[in-house]
Amino acid sequence: MPDTTPPIGTASGIQLLLHTVLCVIGMVLLTSFGVTMLAKHFGIALVSAGEPLATVGERMQLRLLLLINNLGTWGIPALLALLLTYGRRWSDAAGFVRPRHPGMIGNAILVFLFGIPLVALAAYFNLQLDLPDWMVRSEAEGNALLASVLRIESISELAVALLTVAVVPAFAEELMFRGLLQGRLLRSMMSGTAAIWVAAIIFSAIHLEFAGFFPRLLLGVLLGYSYRWTGSLWVPVILHLLFNGLQVITTYQAGTFVPDTEMDTPFATLALAGILSLVVVLYLGMRSERKVSAG
């Protein structure tokens, strides 16, 4: 399988690795300190399994903290590492280019859409695992945090929630996990397929939401292949944005937040949809691999 990431200069993998490690460690420490200080100033508990925040002001402050955390933990470190390594060509190196295989955009979108039932089936099986108490507590805390973020009572709250949950994560996380890790750092050490899966594993594990590890892993793989097939990071960014954005809008319309740990779809329905999803994804995926290899 040919490398479909944009060719950029002669920067070494060691150089990029060093820049990535330094930027991630530095920015994570700085961001953690800043977010902790702001949380104390606002009087908001970032670790809580209690009721969602009651006032609009508190929820807006929480969204600001999460936005800063996402940018400072993923987006800015990835940007800095790419800038230090590739200079003015950082955006090309990240994959923010026109699709090298525009004819593959439709296939990438179809694989992602048809892959969602398979993701749902993976979520069901993930929930059947008997997780340790500390993982259960971590999941409850994460759900409580998300319940506050997605408690939306006005259009202005909806706009900020979309920015916090959909827009910023789509750019920051895709820049880090697909653009930097999959497309550059891991691709210099292993095959393209291995880079997709390793980046997706890191992407899922780093969220520390263990009841959703496997579905998030599959989402990362689907996003990774969309980047591989099209050669443009814009495709996974847009898919990520739409996926998260739809969840925000659905929650707003429903008027209540339902955590991923609460699934009420019958298993037979999930299994049938998941099997059909797997068949379609494998067929479209293999066809996409052949097309990109031939092109």
UniProtKB/TrEMBL annotation:
Name this protein carries in UniProt: CAAX prenyl protease 2/Lysostaphin resistance protein A-like domain-containing protein
GO biological process: CAAX-box protein maturation
Source taxonomy: Bacteria, Pseudomonadati, Bacteroidota, Saprospiria, Saprospirales
Keywords for the protein's UniProt record, in alphabetical order: Membrane, Transmembrane, Transmembrane helix
Keyword Transmembrane: yes
Transmembrane segments: 16-42, 62-84, 105-125, 145-172, 234-255, 267-286
One example GO MF annotation: endopeptidase activity
One Pfam family here: Rce1-like
Domain CAAX prenyl protease 2/Lysostaphin resistance protein A-like: 158-245
InterPro entries referenced in this protein's UniProt entry, alphabetically: CAAX_protease, Rce1/LyrA-like_dom
Source organism, top-level taxon: Bacteria
